[in-house]
Design goal:
The complex is a heterotrimer of chains A (537), B (472) and C (198). Chain B is mostly helical and 472 residues long. In chain B, 68% of the residues lie in helices and 5% in strands. The chains are: A mainly alpha (537), B mainly alpha (472), C mainly alpha (198).
């Protein structure tokens, strides 16, 4: 019931803000309602840590034997860390959004943030594929409507449409996975996913996280820099990451060749995204690569047969990522806050991500392990770079925001620390300490090289300073165009057009003047088929 | 004792005919038709099993049979649900038909058509129904192509193929009579099966004989096409179930259900590809109809996995989508937003007319089976059925659904395209917003609470006891 | 009824159907349609009572007259030119029609043996020939009048086949309604075509 209380608090806050704004608009009141509600929800979620696991049936589709399904919510060690992270980001987004209070639409954005947190929380806590599918659909449609409402330019709108189509694909992959799973075990819960459906669920997760297809829909609009937009991007990933923790039998069910291929492809996606993350011209442009890189870490854990370890990387994605991207405007004086946030990513013993290495290289070092470590180092380098590139004076903020803005960031740090201690049994571990040490050494070497080359943040004159810059740039561009998979889309689009042409040609033929004769021919052909008694496979 | 066929067939038929002279007064004719349709729907829903009402101490009994020229029209309690559905369709299409530029005979002819569809399901011997289907086709001509509109080829195609189907079904009827006394291995069985299947393929516009569907939806007013095709699909599916129920030899044919699954899946895949490559929004309805026929055949094929219940529970979600789609396309056409019917004419529709755009888009998502919408609870059972029956055949579903997603993507891209030139906003009347909002709300409410709205309609299957016994 | 009369009726039906398939002169086509109904009536007489056979004849002739009157009313009926030189299209359709007749003649014994063993040969020949020729006409012509003539012919052929298999008063009434409906639909199309032309 406490779960429902959390939903109730959030829903009530959303409605209360809307009502109060329509009666007598006052930004401060709206902010206070949002803040109190999210804080209460956060505290309640923290409290629920004492009652794990908790199950709740929210709706029963029972009408005889017709549907025989229940919509259930489950809170356990698989999803509780993600749930608390989601509420933290929502709270932090509302805190940091105080830099925008002059904007009359700010209260509506807070309602939006609360709504996004609420519906993604449903997806995150889904106890069965049915609830998850409904929550995903709700999230996708609300996100689409929000994006449409922004009235972006032509290019961005095309990206919005493509992103929605990919989300639909992930949704249908989830439904396909459910259908395949039902074959073995009708009405299964996410805790007992039939092994034959594991790989289809992985497909759904990969599509939702953006690993497949490696087309990173990148929206370049000012409206998408605000706190709500960060939530909008990060929250859907949370439920996919939570689902990933249940896919425990992928190595056992996939053929070895397929497994190896998937591991290699994911490793390459990881490396490519980490490289792109570290080298983007500005922080905002690096966001999709951050998502894919850390999602690849999480998926790799599932592919290695240790999906629970994916939680560490998933939480780094959400919390360290939110810390970095909510740090906008990047105030120089408080840049230590995102820098401290690196503790959620570094993976050193007894930090949040320490247990994540077990999922990646638990089976022993191999060539792929070096790809993981190198990718990790690239992520650390990029993170440091964007945190250090802060160049705005604190005076740019209004007086109240000088307190609330850093408080929002501190909240995330606080959650990182809380999860570091209480996230799940065994979170506080030594882990495979060699890997983060190597990664850190690589970071140190890079920093040393930067100083040696006389580079300073922000990197504006790389062309003159870096040796072999042109060659490196050409190679990077080549890699980028290969991994962006534009060639696949061009080929796909060509194929689609050809199919369309053939379909239109057939349509013209069949609907033309001789159409009735064609119909008679088809009729005779069908009769012949029946008479011939064509056997089905 | 009042005869039920008189209530649900003769009364609306006569009323429809009597309303023809008053066609010029559309408001009157549509109001009368709406009220009668609603009353007949309610009566069908509340009809007790013992077919008698006690009002103020008087017992009113109903006679389920009516004799006509030596043959019988029979409507019993089991048929009440399907009758309720048919009159509900007529009511929901008539209620707001005065908004659209359709034939002045819409009210009267739609009532006659509904009564005739009920006749199709009530006549004994039931094979004579084939001729009535042909008569319905003829009656629908003035609705599909009223005076003042050009004679278009799709209409002729529709007429010819429907008549051809009638002859095939009638011939099969004669063969069926011979089968009763013939041994099971008789070639008569095989020929009759071929005739029945070909007849239904033509009637329902099954691939590859589907050209009339897209042509007709392109040429005729969408509000009319929506109503006529919705009723046709419902009645003919039930009529097809009659065949399967009556003739044990038909349902016992080796592989017949497996074949239906495969045919359904091929239709879904083809329909999806065809819809994805369409440039005309007006033709799309024909392909949606085709895909829905595919899903129905697939569900019937999955009878052993509970597919028959899925057939019955699909009617309402499908009707809401058809209604919403027909409403929005008809509104756009009548407001002059669709001169040629090309999708490109709808660029930026989400900004110009958000309700109309949402109506189209959500209707499409519902047909696709997206969770949260009315069709999802049923669709997922069908998908699970395919996975449980022939996992490898899921590929057809994947092709069909992926193609429909491509189509949704195309539509969305066009709808949210910022206008290069400033076009005036398409005015949306408050009532238009209300009806579209209502349609979308219904889709969502049914999608979240399917257990309240859908199980009632499984009563449609009550007459098919033999079929159910074959698949307990 | 004598065998000769039956054969002559079949020949009459075929000639009328081929004329309707080939020529594009509406007056001649309607006369051919009327004669075709007479041929079908004669064939039906071999199986049914005079009264039952007269119903389709009356309905058919009535519909033909209605179409004729409509054509006159809408000023679409041109003076017939029966001996006008045929166009290449007409020659092609004539050849196609003859080939169809040959096919039907060759196939009918097989069809009779396999499917309709109790139906008379000439009756089967007349009905299947009429069905085939009208389907050919429906596939080759797109003008509303020819579509309606084609459909009426198809229905005549089918009725001829069906009376040999099953008789029912209700079915007869339904067929009559269908024929009437088709004729009226034809009138509707003709009136609309005239509206459009204006």
């Amino acid at each position: 019931m406490y779960i429902l209380a959390i939903f109730g608090i959030l829903a009530f806050a959303g409605v209360a803000i809307l009502v109060s704004q329509s009666l007598k608009p006052k930004t401060a009141r709206a902010w206070l309602i949002a803040l109190v509600a999210t804080t209460l929800a956060w505290v309640a979620m923290l409290f629920l840590r004492l009652y794990l696991p908790t199950n709740l049936t929210i709706l029963s589709w029972e009408a005889g034997e017709l549907f025989n399904s229940k919509l259930t919510l489950t809170l356990d060690y698989h999803n509780w860390p993600y749930a608390i992270s989601l509420l933290t980001i929502c709270m932090a987004a509302i805190f940091t959004d105080t830099t925008q209070t002059n904007n009359p639409s700010a209260p509506l954005r807070w309602v939006g943030s609360i709504t996004i947190a609420l519906i993604n929380l449903v997806g995150l806590l889904a106890g069965d594929p049915l609830t998850l599918a409904i929550a995903w659909a709700l999230v996708d449609i609300i996100e689409l409507l929000y994006m449409i409402n922004l009235q972006l330019n032509f290019e961005n709108n095309q990206v919005v449409a493509t992103s929605f189509a990919i989300r639909l694909l992930s949704l249908f992959a989830l439904l396909l996975a459910t259908a395949v799973g039902w074959h073995d075990q009708p009405g299964f819960s996410l805790h007992a996913i039939p092994s034959n459906a594991n790989w289809v669920f992985l497909l759904a997760v990969s599509l939702r996280l953006g690993i497949l297809p490696l087309k990173l829909p990148f929206l370049n609009a000012d409206e998408l820099r605000q706190g709500m937009a960060v939530l909008l991007r990060f929250a859907p990933a949370a439920s996919a990451l939570a689902l990933l923790t249940h896919l425990s039998s992928i190595p056992q069910t996939l053929p070895p060749v397929w497994l190896l291929t998937l591991r290699v492809v994911t490793a390459l996606a990881m490396l490519y995204s980490a490289l792109m993350f570290a080298t983007r011209p500005e922080k905002f442009a690096s966001r999709p690569y951050w998502l894919v890189a850390l999602s690849s870490f999480a998926v790799q854990c599932a592919l290695q047969g240790n999906p629970l370890a994916s939680r560490a990387w998933g939480l780094a994605l959400l919390l360290s990522g939110a810390l970095l991207y909510l740090f906008d405007p990047p105030i120089r004086r408080i840049r230590f806050l995102p820098l401290v946030g690196i503790v959620g990513l570094v993976g050193l013993p007894y930090t949040l991500t320490a247990s994540g290495w077990e999922g990646l290289i638990g089976a022993g070092f191999s060539f792929r392990s070096f790809i993981f470590i190198f990718s990790h180092a690239l992520l650390l380098i990029g993170y440091l770079r964007y945190a250090l590139e802060s160049n705005i004076a604190i005076t740019a903020l209004e007086k109240h925001a000088r307190i609330t803005f850093p408080t929002g960031l501190v909240l995330i740090l606080q959650t990182i620390l809380i999860l570091n201690i209480t996230g799940w049994p065994g979170v506080l571990t030594l882990g495979l300490w060699v890997a983060p040490v190597i990664s850190l050494l690589l970071v140190c070497l890079s920093v040393f090289a930067f100083f040696k080359l006389g580079l300073k943040v922000p990197f504006t004159n790389l062309e003159q300073r870096l040796p072999f810059y042109r060659i490196a740039h050409a190679v990077l561009t080549g890699i980028q165009s290969f991994f962006s998979l534009d060639w696949v889309y061009t080929a796909g689009s060509f194929l689609g057009k050809q199919i369309g042409k053939v379909t239109n040609l057939v349509t013209e033929l069949v609907e033309g003047e001789g159409g009735i004769l064609w119909s008679l021919v088809f009729l005779i052909a069908l009769t012949t088929l029946f008479i011939a008694g064509v056997k089905l496979p | 004792m009042i005869s039920l066929p008189l209530i649900w067939i003769a009364f609306p038929l006569i009323t429809g005919v009597l309303l023809i002279p008053f066609a010029k007064n559309r408001r009157l004719s549509v109001s009368v038709v709406s009220i009668i349709s609603l009353l007949l729907t309610i009566l069908a829903i509340v009809l007790p099993k013992e077919m008698a009402f006690v009002i103020f101490g008087h017992r009113y009994e109903f006679n389920p049979v009516f004799f006509l020229l030596g043959r019988m029209l029979s409507i019993n309690h089991n048929a009440a649900v399907i009758i309720a559905l048919l009159y509900l369709v007529n009511f929901s299409w008539n209620l707001i038909s005065t908004r659209f530029k359709v034939s002045q005979y819409f009210g009267s002819l739609s009532l006659i058509t509904t009564a005739l569809w009920v006749t199709v399901l009530a006549i004994e011997p039931f094979l004579y129904a084939a001729v009535i289907v042909a008569i319905i086709t003829l009656i629908s001509i003035p609705l599909l192509s009223p005076r003042g509109e050009a004679n278009r080829p799709g209409l002729f195609r529709y007429l010819i193929l429907q008549l051809l189907a009638t002859s095939l079904i009638l011939l099969s009827g004669w063969m069926l009579a011979g089968i009763v006394s013939a041994p099971s291995a008789s070639p008569l069985i095989f020929r009759a099966t071929v005739m029945v299947l070909l007849g239904f393929i033509l009637w329902l516009g099954v691939f590859p004989l589907n050209s009339w569907l897209s042509m007709l939806s392109d040429e005729s007013h969408h509000w009319v096409v929506g109503m006529l095709l919705s009723m046709r699909q419902i009645a003919l599916i039930i009529y097809f179930l009659h065949f399967l129920d009556r003739f044990a030899w038909l349902r016992n044919l080796p592989n017949i259900f497996k074949d239906m699954q495969l045919i359904g899946l091929v239709i879904i895949a083809f329909g999806g590809i065809a819809a994805a490559s369409q440039k005309s929004i007006r033709r799309l309805f024909g392909f949606f109809f085709l895909i829905e026929t595919g899903y129905t055949l697939l569900s019937i094929g999955l009878a052993a996995h509970g597919g028959l219940n899925q057939v019955a529970m699909s009617f309402i979600p499908r009707l809401i989508s058809y209604w919403l789609w027909a409403f929005t396309v008809a509104s756009l056409s009548d407001q002059g937003n669709l001169k040629l019917g090309y999708l490109n004419e709808l660029s930026g529709l989400f900004y110009r007319a958000p309700f109309l755009a949402s109506g189209l888009f959500f209707s499409l998502l519902n047909l696709l089976g997206v969770p949260l919408f009315a069709f999802f609870p049923v669709r997922r059972l069908v998908w699970a059925g395919v996975a449980g029956s022939q996992t490898s055949w899921l590929i057809f579903l994947v092709i069909g659904i992926a193609s429909m997603i491509v189509h949704a993507l195309n539509l969305l891209r066009i709808f949210i395209q910022p206008e290069s030139e400033t076009r005036p906003a398409t005015p949306e009347a408050p009532s238009q917003k209300f009806f579209i909002g209502l349609g979308i709300l219904l889709l969502i409410v049914v999608g979240i609470f399917p257990h309240f709205f859908l199980p009632y309609w499984t009563g449609i299957l009550a007459p098919f006891t033999n079929l159910f016994n074959a698949f307990p | 009824m004598s065998q000769t009369l039956i054969i002559l009726s079949v020949v009459l039906v075929f000639i009328c159907a081929i004329v309707n398939l080939v020529r594009r002169q509406w007056g001649i086509n309607l006369i051919a349609l009327a004669l075709q109904y007479i041929g079908v009536f004669l064939l039906q007489l071999a199986l049914r009572s005079l009264m039952m056979s007269t119903i389709p004849l009356l309905v058919g002739i009535m519909m033909t007259i209605t179409l004729w009157v409509t054509l006159i009313g809408t000023d679409q009926l041109k003076k017939p030119e029966p001996f006008k030189a045929p166009t290449s299209g007409e020659v092609f359709r004539a050849v196609a029609g003859l080939v169809t007749v040959i096919f039907v003649v060759l196939l009918v014994p097989i069809i009779r043996r396999e499917v309709f063993p109790e139906t008379g040969s000439y009756l089967l020949l007349g009905s299947i020939g009429l069905i085939a020729l009208s389907l050919l006409q429906l596939g080759m012509k797109t003008e509303p009048l020819y579509i309606i003539i084609g459909l009426l012919s198809f229905l005549s052929g089918f009725q001829l086949l069906y009376v040999a298999l099953e008789t029912s008063a209700l079915l007869e009434a339904l067929f009559a309604v269908l024929n009437l409906g088709l004729g009226l639909t034809g009138v509707f199309f003709l009136v609309k075509a005239e509206d459009e032309a204006q």
